[in-house]
Amino acid sequence: MRTWLFKTEPKDFSLQDLRAAPDQTTGWDGVRNYQARNRLRDEIQDGDRVLIYHSRGKNPSIVGEARVTSAPYPDPTQFNPDHSGYDPRSSEDMPRWYQVDVRYVTTYKTPLPLSEMRQRAEFADLELVIRPRLSIQSITDRQYQQILALCEPELSVVGACSPALS
DNA sequence: GCCAACGTTGGC
DNA sequence: GCCAACGTTGGC
């Protein structure tokens, strides 16, 4: 299982919105960047872990965790002329944009602000720090443990690092 | 296939 | 809401 970080603007769609969604699950639509698309389409697998990052707020932070609950599939909003995600270059035969379903797992006790990650040497190689524009980021196991140790100290005991689905 | 113009992102 | 950085587009 790999760990990813998905960015979202909380005023558009927040972790709380995911928690309140039917089945606490939503299709992660709207990704319109090729590198992020390639990861969604080619690398992300059902069951992978997802950290949710709130961008553009007053204190942009990693706020919690979700799980991938589907294989990648074409983002349906690309086919809908009435939707802001519409892409006239896409067709059902040749979809251009992909998404996965994600299910809410947990809200961290202590959100981890970008400003703090920037200050800590152990996060110097975080994509969020190096390439902040990329909306689908890859997180190493070591980075995940370090994030969890700051966000959910009591869960970061060795061997007990994965919160159960709630 | 270069690169200038343009559009978008996202921290501040 | 500003604006710097970055990604995309399209003329040549």
Give a structural overview:
With 166 residues, the chain is α+β, with helices and mostly antiparallel strands. It has a single domain (3-155), classed as ph1033 like fold (Roll). 22% of the residues lie in helices and 27% in strands. It has helices spanning 15-20, 34-42, 114-119, 127-130, 141-151; strands at residues 3-8, 25-27, 49-54, 61-68, 73-74, 98-99, 101-113, 136-139. A six-stranded mixed beta sheet has the order 2-7-4-3-1-8. The longest helix is centred in the last third of the chain and has 11 residues, at 141-151. The protein binds a DNA duplex (12 and 12 nucleotides) through loops.
Short structural summary:
This protein is an alpha+beta fold and 166 residues long. It has five helices and eight strands; from the N terminus they run βαβαβββββααβα. The longest helix has 11 residues, at 141-151.
List keywords for this structure.
166 residues, ph1033 like fold, six-stranded mixed beta sheet, DNA-binding
Shape: globular
Number of domains: 1
Q: Give the strand order of the largest sheet, numbering strands 1, 2, ... along the chain.
A: 2-7-4-3-1-8
Give me the CATH fold name.
ph1033 like fold
Percent range of helical residues? 10-25%
CATH architecture: Roll
Number of helices, where a helix is a run of at least 4 consecutive DSSP H or I residues: 5
Main sheet properties: 6 strands, mixed
Strand portion, in percent?
A: 25-35%
Average predicted confidence as pLDDT: 92
* H and E order: EHEHEEEEEHHEH
Q: Quick one: CATH superfamily?
A: ph1033 like domains
β-strand number: 8
Protein name: EVE domain-containing protein
InterPro entries: 5hmC_binding (IPR052181), EVE_domain (IPR002740), PUA-like_sf (IPR015947), THYN1-like_EVE (IPR047197)
Organism: Alloalcanivorax profundimaris
